[in-house]
């Protein structure tokens, strides 16, 4: 084996040393030792999603967008993206390195949808292989499953049916729905026009299993056409469904028997009464035509007497004293009272005088109810 002289060994070492120094001094070399002194990289800035924005589960996968970092170094930047379910990023659900920058901004579409019903946090960092920027500010967003509510189906009263009375019971098939619904309520609008420009009543009530029923809380005008529609809403989020189709019905025709001689009631009333207590009111009203104040008072006394004789629940019943404003001989012209409530027995005492039985939901003042 040929032996190298001392001079040859030294020369070889010097050449090798120079080659290594040249390689490490090239800032674009993939194997450059870092960090490179004097190089500063600013942190990237999350653009969207951020600030807790909610993203529907079907609007995925999510795209993360950031404002690019700046550097005074010569080495090209790439980005590291991280997504986690906590602010400390101990539970990471996604991470990607080596993301090539875009022009001014960089977008990264996640490969898969994220689970719904959770809040997610994300951040990014710029790196050049030798130097790194500070981690970006934290951004967060929420994935949710939207509530979708369809229209209910109206079951009864429909198709312009004529009712047998003046106080309908509405029935509807519950609205289909999807998503995390907590509880459903319904809004029912009642109108005397199909445009619903003039609303007679607006009622809100809770859903029942499969089919929901709602009894009108007061009587309606007789022999009149009414239009109704319904929509559903979720009580926790107020997510609302569309209005149902519109349906129409007619109330019963009031039975009015022509009055005999003034002040002299016609046919007597007595048990059995159909549809108590409304039947009692109807029977007493049928004894008169258009009533004078004297006849109204006689009508009220007869109603109270028959209600008490029939032992109607909620009694005893009497006449409500009223000495101011419009009155009939010192009494209200259309109210029968009980110890705990008032009962409207004439739709309009001064006009149509249509019989009715509707709660006034207010107890009379002490001494105001004159029991017959």
Rg value:
42 Å
DSSP strand count: 23
- The total of helices stands at 3
Q: What gross morphology would you assign? A: rod-shaped
Distance between the termini: 141 Å
- Structural class of the secondary elements? mainly beta
**What percent of residues are in strands?**
25-35%
CATH topology value of the largest domain: Immunoglobulin-like
Task: Explain briefly what this protein structure is.
The protein has 372 residues and is mainly β. It has helices spanning 6-24, 278-285, 293-309, and strands at 45-48, 53-56, 63-67, 78-84, 92-99, 105-109, 118-127, 139-144, 148-149, 153-156, 161-162, 169-173, 177-178, 184-191, 199-206, 211-215, 225-234, 247-250, 318-321, 331-338, 341-346, 355-359, 369-371.
Task: Output the keywords.
12% helix; five-stranded mixed β-sheet; disordered N terminus; 3 helices; 3 domains; Immunoglobulin-like; mainly beta; 23 strands
Descriptive account of the structure:
The protein is mainly beta and 372 residues long. The protein has three domains: 45-144, Immunoglobulins (Immunoglobulin-like), CATH 2.60.40; 148-250, Immunoglobulin-like, CATH 2.60.40.10; 278-371, no CATH class. The chain has three helices and 23 strands. A five-stranded mixed β-sheet has the order 2-8-7-4-5, with no helix packed on it. A five-stranded mixed β-sheet has the order 11-18-17-14-15, with no helix packed on it. 27% of the residues are buried. Mean pLDDT is 85; it is low at 1-24 and 257-264.
